[in-house]
Structure formats: C-alpha cells, structure tokens
Design a protein that fits this description.
By secondary structure, this protein is mainly alpha-helical. About 50% of the residues lie in helices and about 0% in strands. It has one domain. The protein is elongated and about 55 Å long. This is Phosphatidic acid phosphatase type 2/haloperoxidase domain-containing protein. InterPro entries: PAP2/HPO, PAP2/HPO_sf. Keywords: Membrane, Transmembrane, Transmembrane helix.
C-alpha cells in the first residue's frame, strides 16, 4: 500500500478582474490640460494688451470705412450670410448641445460633461450682451469720420463718453461662435480628435464673423478678440467642474458588477491504495 498526497492550490482573486472606477475623469487628471488652457488665456491677454496699447483698432477700421460709411455694411455676404446666417448656425449648434445632453450623441461623455457644456454656452451667450449693455463705446460706423456723430474713444477710457450711442463693446455676434468653445472642453477627454476639430471650427467661425463685422463697420478688431478671450477664459474656469467625477454613474457610464473574491479551498489529502 502506498499513500500519495494530492492537494488543490487555493486561488485568490484575479487583480485584472477588479472593477474599474465608475464615473468621469478624476479632477487631477484634468490639470495638465487645464494648465495648457490657462497658458493660452494668459498669452491671449498679453496679445490683447499689446494690441490695445498700439492703438491699431482705428487704423484697421479705416481700411474699410469712408466718409460716407462702410460699403460692405449691407453687402449680401457680410450682412446676409455671415451676420444673419451666423445666428442660424448658432441656433443649430445650441440644439445639438441640448439634444446631446438629453440623449447622448457621444456615448462616452458623462452627464456632467454634457450638461456642463450647455451651462457654459448659456452663460457665455448671456455674459457678452450684459457687458455690452454697460459699455459706453460706440461702433465704428457711429464715428464722425465715417458719417456718424461720435469720436473715437478707447474702451479703456472708463466713464469717457464718445458722443455716440455706445453699447458696442465687446462683439456680440462673435459670441455666437466663441460661446461654443464648450464643444472642445466637453469632448477633449473622451474624443480628443473631435475636440480639436471642434476647436478649429469654432475659431474659424469666430474669425469669419469678426471679419464680417469689421468690414461692415459694426466692430473694431479688438471687440472680436476680447469676446474670444472672455469666452475662452470662462470655459477654462468651468472646465475642472465639467471634469470632476460625478457622485454616481451616469447613463453614459455602464455600471461594473462587483467581483466577489473566490474563497480559498482547504488542502485535502486523498489516500490512494
């Protein structure tokens, strides 16, 4: 008779099977991207300060204006397509954001990212007109040298009236493009390539709208640049809150079932005769 001992090796839980954290990206993972966005905001502020100090606004506007006004003020491309049509584009983009918030068009986004983009765009579209309402700066087409009654006064000359109607700084029409920086900040975590495409598209639209308003005599170049800076800085400030993981899973975040560790199997000796 010969006894042989056979034993079963106990198996522990598989580390690879452990569930991944539920929710969006933790706050700290967004910091490098936010740092770059802050750097862009600071660089833009420096460029704007140099532009305003140089006093280039009036020199650029004079390229388009004459003593009897601006020839492109009612031109079909600048007025009809880029001004009136731009409002319809903004309306369409806003609808996309709302639909995406309710029924995700990008399934990898968290609820916080989707609704955060809606809130960010809404605040941007409200903030620019509020600043304009308190501004005493008049539009280029209001200047006496272009057929109006106002004199040129820098928007930095607070409290100094220019003799015109005012309420022109910054550019409201440009905000119908730059307010949608929200697309970039919404998409950059889960869809970085689409986020960059969205950022490029928004910048192109904003520049087109700004040029149209410049050619029409509706705004100085700095008005468009300040609108872009305000919308970008607002988005940078809101970005960390859009990236924080929500307290619970959203519809876009599937819940991972918990994995119960396997109970260890006791060693057993089996006698074989």
């Amino acid at each position: 008779m010969k006894n042989h001992s056979l034993s079963d090796v106990s198996a522990g839980p598989d580390a690879a099977a452990m569930p991944a954290p539920v929710g969006g990206v933790p706050f700290l993972t967004a910091l490098p991207r936010t740092g770059r966005a802050i750097a862009v905001a600071l660089l833009g502020l420096a460029v704007l300060a140099l532009w305003d100090l140089a006093g280039w606004d009036l020199a650029v506007v004079r390229l388009f204006g004459r003593v009897d006004g601006f020839a492109l003020r009612e031109y079909w491309l600048t007025s009809g397509v880029l001004h009136v049509g731009g409002r319809w584009v903004a309306t369409g983009l806003a609808v996309v954001l709302l639909v995406n918030a309710v029924r995700p068009l990008w399934p990898g986004l968290t609820r916080r990212e989707r609704w955060g983009a809606v809130a960010l765009t809404t605040i941007s579209l409200l903030l620019i007109p509020m600043i304009k309402q308190g501004s005493t700066t008049s539009c280029p087409w209001d200047l006496a040298e272009f057929g109006g009654t106002a004199r040129y006064v820098s928007h930095w000359s607070f409290g100094v009236l220019d003799g015109g109607p005012g309420h022109c700084f910054p550019s409201g029409h440009a905000s119908s493009a730059f307010a949608f920086f929200s697309f970039y900040f919404m998409l950059r975590r889960a869809y970085p390539r689409q986020a960059r495409a969205a950022l490029t598209g928004v910048m192109m639209l904003g520049c087109l709208y700004g040029f149209a308003q410049l050619a029409r005599g509706a705004h100085y170049p700095s008005h468009t640049m300040w609108t872009a800076w305000i919308c970008w800085t607002l988005a940078v400030a809101a970005a960390p809150f859009m990236s924080v993981a929500p307290a619970g899973p959203s519809a876009a975040d599937p819940v991972q079932p918990p994995v119960t560790p396997a109970a260890p199997v006791a060693h057993a000796d089996v006698a074989v005769s």
